[in-house]
Structures are given as structure tokens and as C-alpha cells.
Design goal:
The chain is of the alpha+beta class. It has eight helices and 17 strands. The protein starts with a strand and ends with a helix.
């Protein structure tokens, strides 16, 4: 048997792999950071063996509560990901599985590689509705891709959507596939009407370096991008610096920052109620948006989420708060689970790439239903 992770997005350290029923592993932390929880590795030579894989440092992970009720994902072809038996106890995360083939991949959530990202933006640019721009480069020298969908025009509202500030939250880029595909669908009447009134600026992956390195939460030098919006720099957080600079060129009326949450088994939205400029009008618009999205896609809900920030107590280093305050925009953070959705579980896959794509597409219609109020 062998375990490897020396590939795009891979992360694991092998302590022992001699006995199928006692494979011992550790998750590696982000570079120059103590964050860790993302894992992604390949097991070969274990076909039809009863495997017990123990991640022995799980009790020291960044979000230990995230292991409760969690099941790891596995795939033989890296296309279809399914859940496998997983248990957390005494500081260890134990995966039990009997592989049906010689090669099987295990991950914290279905990975979204930088190669797949390159396919997404390359295909998008071939649409007559889209234009691909390179905003600049990460610290590892990777491109920071921006997709513009629709033509800017006087009177049009400006919408921004970004994903994967935290690279291990791969469901966010799966969400982007559904969101972008619907906006580019020339047979879809909703996307047609949305683009008649709005132009979209989309960053499908804000953190290419962390994504390729197999990080959970930070970029190449251990920086949490979603705490950099107040004062980003090219030598520490060029990803935020360049995107923020572009936002100030285009303006922002609407912004979605797409994430994943380790602990909560729900899809939910957190907004920017704590900023100084929050108003009754934006409160009503936020409620309207969430209610419309829940109607369109019942995998979304409004009962559970993060505690509401007190007035004037928003963390202005976070994306949605910075955007809300500086542009007086409706800015929201959309969160999806690493686990399954408690209200609408799917026994085979849990929360999955396919369901994330559907939620992404549903947001286009939610925007359509509220855009006259933006």
C-alpha cells in the first residue's frame, strides 16, 4: 500500500501505512500558519481491504467541532465523490472504507484543482457574454483571474461575486460553476434579463496559491485574505489588493463572497449589519434576498447562521463589511457546509459539488428577483 499527496491541492503526512487496519496520518498546517483541517490524498494497493485510516492530529485542527457529524469524501475517478464512514473520538478522525479499486482518493471535501479552475475560466471566455482579465499575480506567480459577464453601460448595476478566499472551502468554486454557467446560458430568460440590467465581475478563485499548496485558510505566506480588506498590500496579500483596486474602478452595488463553514450543517447568509452605514433599507433588501433564495432552492435556509454583529461593531478587515461600508452595497457572505445539510440530507454524497452548483445557479434567479431594489 502507498499513500501520496504530492499533487495539486494535496495534503497529508504519512506516519505509517504497513497495515490496512492501522494507517496513521497527520494533516499538515498551512505554510507559515497554524491553520489546518484540509486533507486530500491518494491510497493505492488496498483494493478490497478493510482500511482504517486514522488522522491522529485531528484534535488539534483549526475547527475541532467540525469533525462532529462529519463524513469524509472519497472518489475513484475524481469526478464523482461519495461519503464514507468517518468517526471522531479522543482527538483522532477515523475513516473506515473498503476500496473497490486499486486507487482511491480521500478528501475533506470534493477538491477543485487549479487545473480545473483553468478549464472553468478558459471555457467561460469563449462566451460572447464574457471577457477574461488577468488582474495580476499571486506571491507564487499564479494568475488572478477575473471574469466579466455582460457589458458595462450607464445605468447598469454592478455585481461582484468572489470565492475561495479560504482555499480549502472548495465548495465555493463548485458554486461558481453553477453561477457562471447560468449567467452564460443564452437560452435562459432569467440570465438574459439580469444581464440587461447588470454587469458581473467574478473572481472564481481568490486564493490560487493556497489552493495549489493544499491550504485550509491562507495564501502562500500564511495570510488569511478575509482579514486583509482594510489594508491589503502587494507583498502580503496581492490577491485582495488587486481585486479591491478593481472594485474601486467599477463600483459595487451588490457583492457575494462565497465560503464554506466547517461546523454548521446548513447553507446560510451572513451580512454586514454591524457596519456604521447599515440602514433599514438594506435590512429589508437582505431579508428579501434570503427569502427569495430559500423559495428558489430549499437547500438554503434562514433559521441558522452566525450571530448578528452589533451596530458599529463590524470587523472592517473582512470583505463584506469593507464593501458594504465603502460602496453602500448589499454585501453578503454565503456559507455552505463541509458536512451534509441537516434539514435535507443526502445519504450518499452529503453536501456535494452538484448541490453547490445548483445553489450557485439559484442565486442568479434570486438576484433577478431583487435587482430592481438594488
Amino acid at each position: 500500500m502507498q499513500i501520496t499527496s504530492n499533487f495539486d491541492g494535496g495534503n497529508i503526512d504519512v506516519l505509517s501505512c504497513e497495515e490496512a487496519n492501522n494507517i496513521r496520518l497527520e494533516i499538515l498546517p498551512d505554510n507559515e500558519s497554524s491553520f489546518f483541517q484540509w486533507f486530500y490524498f491518494r491510497l493505492t494497493g488496498a483494493c478490497q481491504k478493510q482500511c482504517v485510516l486514522r488522522i491522529v492530529n485531528a484534535g488539534e485542527a483549526s475547527y475541532v467541532k467540525g469533525w462532529q457529524g462529519y463524513r469524509a469524501v472519497a472518489s475513484y475517478d475524481r469526478q464523482y465523490w461519495f461519503r464514507v464512514d468517518t468517526f471522531y473520538a479522543d482527538g483522532e478522525l477515523t475513516i473506515q472504507h473498503q476500496p473497490a479499486y486499486d486507487s482511491v482518493y480521500y478528501a475533506y471535501f470534493a477538491p477543485y484543482s487549479m487545473e480545473k479552475h483553468a478549464d472553468l475560466v478558459s471555457i467561460a471566455q469563449t462566451s460572447s457574454r464574457a471577457e477574461l482579465m488577468n488582474l495580476g499575480f499571486t506571491l507564487d506567480g499564479q494568475d488572478i483571474d477575473l471574469i466579466q459577464i455582460g457589458a458595462p453601460d450607464e445605468g447598469k448595476k454592478v455585481a461582484w461575486a468572489i470565492a475561495r478566499q479560504h482555499p480549502g472551502e472548495t465548495m465555493a468554486e463548485w458554486w461558481m460553476e453553477g453561477f457562471i454557467s447560468r449567467l452564460l446560458d443564452t437560452t435562459d430568460a432569467v440570465s438574459r434579463e439580469v444581464l440587461n440590467q447588470m454587469v458581473f465581475y467574478i473572481v472564481p478563485n481568490m486564493n490560487p496559491d493556497g489552493s495549489r499548496r493544499g491550504h485550509l485558510r491562507t495564501n502562500a505566506v500564511g495570510v488569511n485574505l478575509n482579514r486583509e480588506w482594510r489594508d491589503p498590500s502587494l507583498d502580503r496579500s496581492p490577491e485582495v489588493y488587486l481585486v479591491r483596486e478593481m472594485m474601486h474602478r467599477t463600483g459595487v452595488d451588490f457583492c457575494l463572497d462565497v465560503h464554506g463553514d466547517e461546523g454548521l450543517p446548513y447553507n446560510f447568509i451572513a451580512s454586514s449589519e454591524g457596519v456604521a452605514s447599515w440602514s433599514d433599507e438594506r435590512e429589508a433588501l437582505l431579508i428579501h434576498y434570503k427569502e427569495e433564495l430559500m423559495t428558489i432552492n430549499p437547500d438554503f435556509q434562514t433559521e441558522y447562521g452566525y450571530p448578528r454583529a452589533a451596530a458599529g461593531q463590524a470587523n472592517m478587515a473582512m470583505c463584506t463589511n469593507y464593501v458594504a461600508e465603502n460602496f453602500r452595497a448589499l454585501a453578503m457572505t454565503l456559507e455552505m457546509p463541509f458536512k451534509d445539510t441537516a434539514d435535507s440530507p443526502h445519504i450518499l454524497q452529503g453536501w456535494s459539488p452538484e448541490r453547490a452548483e445548483h445553489l450557485g445557479a439559484a442565486n442568479v434567479e434570486a438576484i433577478y428577483r431583487v435587482m430592481s431594489s438594488l
